[in-house]
């Protein structure tokens, strides 16, 4: 009986705009904004935690700003 080979399926993360090699915010010349919960959602886990930089490839300064803006959006109940 042939052994079933497990093939890697593209996870939700790879389809996500967050998985890239350069900083998304610097590329698009925008800064993280709490009034844009849809964009902030790309940098969160399904449970609502902030994804680390080594996964999202966001630069250090943008990551710092992103964390602040995510916390602001949480306070206003725009994201979980
Ligand atoms: Zn950046």
Automatic annotation (TrEMBL):
Domain of life, source organism: Bacteria
Record carries keyword Heme: no
GO biological process: translation
GO annotation, cellular component aspect: cytosolic small ribosomal subunit
Keywords assigned: Ribonucleoprotein, Ribosomal protein
NCBIfam families attached to this UniProt entry: S18
Name assigned to this protein: Small ribosomal subunit protein bS18
Organism of this sequence: candidate division WWE3 bacterium CG22_combo_CG10-13_8_21_14_all_39_12
Organism ancestry: Bacteria, Katanobacteria
